[in-house]
Amino acid sequence: MSTIKIQQVRSQIKSPKTQKLTLQALGLKKLNQTVEHKDNPQIRGMVEKVKHLVRIIE
């Protein structure tokens, strides 16, 4: 199974609570932080919800 790297590139300060919780579930706490997850539909769906705040590094 492949993995994807997700980097937070924008602040979550003015985001709705659901988007903040999604970032927290992905393990992103700080700006420019990078986390690695298995590439599956659940993670892709979470990234799609906050695509304006994160960047995918494949």
Main features:
3-stranded antiparallel sheet; alpha+beta; 58 residues; globular; single chain; 26% strand
Overview of the molecule:
- The protein has 58 residues and is an alpha+beta fold.
- 33% of the residues lie in helices and 26% in strands.
- The chain contains 2 helices and 3 strands; from the N terminus they run βαβαβ.
- The chain has helices at 17-26, 41-49, and strands at 3-8, 34-38, 54-57.
- Strands 2-1-3 form a 3-stranded antiparallel beta sheet, with no helix packed on it.
- α1 (17-26) runs antiparallel to α2.
- The longest helix has 10 residues, at 17-26.
- The chain is globular.
- It starts with a strand and ends with a strand.
- The model has no long low-confidence stretch (mean pLDDT 96).
Structural class call reads alpha+beta
The tally of beta strands, per DSSP, is 3
Q: How much is the radius of gyration in Å?
A: 10 Å
What is the overall silhouette?
globular
Largest sheet: number of strands, sense, barrel closure: 3 strands, antiparallel
Major β-sheet strand ordering:
2-1-3
Terminal Cα separation, in Å? 13 Å
Helix content: 25-40%
Number of helices: 2
Mean pLDDT: 96
| H/E element sequence | EHEHE
Q: Unreliable runs, pLDDT <50, ≥5 residues?
A: none
As a percent range, the share of strand residues is 25-35%
